[in-house]
């Protein structure tokens, strides 16, 4: 995240912290990098009650809820409304199609959370105060007619796919993992890292020697997004076996 954007986010966060002394206050929807930045800032604050929630357990875009000391943070308090859009299963629509139609209404990106697209159905999460606007104004996505209804039925249309990657690396150093994932040399991997092109757990990582851990999410600009599922055991030659997934 650029420093200007980070400074603006911190200023907005501090405004919401002040507001939350009297009543719950909500910032976002935030993307994963913004969520990570807020978490880092809030860990340095004392006496602030907060929670991140996006409307479903695996949400990528989330609201940051800040709460007064008399109120326990709960997911049920978040002003999030899911809306289900249905259409003919023969019509193929994508996340980009839905987002483009939402943005064409002249709204800000942060009023729209995750957009989950399946066969003939899409569930999108909106700021509660904006949901009626989308319900009233979305009749088509591109050239495809849709029907919009408030709410969402389980299971949600989540169709996230991964490609499994396995191999061996010299160590848990970040440059070793980046080299393996990008199929390049450690020297070139180190160059990607020091150029600011690698995010570890949605935070910029500039040190090639940084140690990675199981569960880490690595985003490498131009190469994709990966999750480290397993580090180890060591091979007979003392190298580290790894198992990762690439987001498709």
How do you describe this structure in short?
With 248 residues, the chain is of the alpha+beta class. The chain has helices at 3-19, 32-42, 95-103, 131-137, 174-182, 186-194; strands at 25-30, 49-53, 62-67, 80-86, 112-117, 121-127, 140-141, 144-145, 147-150, 162-169, 198-200, 203-204, 217-220, 224-234, 240-247.
> How many individual helices?
6
Rounded to an integer, what's the Rg over CA atoms? 21 Å
What is the topology, as strand order, of the major beta sheet?
A: 10-15-14-13-11-12
Strand content: 25-35%
- What oligomerization state is this entry in? single chain
Biggest sheet statistics: 6 strands, antiparallel
Give the ordered list of helices and strands. HEHEEEHEEHEEEEHHEEEEE
Number of strands: 15
Mean pLDDT: 96
Distance between the termini: 23 Å
Descriptive key words:
six-stranded antiparallel beta sheet; globular; 248 residues; 25% helix; alpha+beta; four-stranded antiparallel beta sheet
Question: Any chance you could write out the topology, listing elements then pairs?
Answer:
Blueprint: H1 3-19, E1 25-30, H2 32-42, E2 49-53, E3 62-67, E4 80-86, H3 95-103, E5 112-117, E6 121-127, H4 131-137, E7 140-141, E8 144-145, E9 147-150, E10 162-169, H5 174-182, H6 186-194, E11 198-200, E12 203-204, E13 217-220, E14 224-234, E15 240-247
Antiparallel strand pairs: 1-3, 2-3, 4-6, 4-9, 5-6, 7-8, 10-15, 11-12, 11-13, 13-14, 14-15
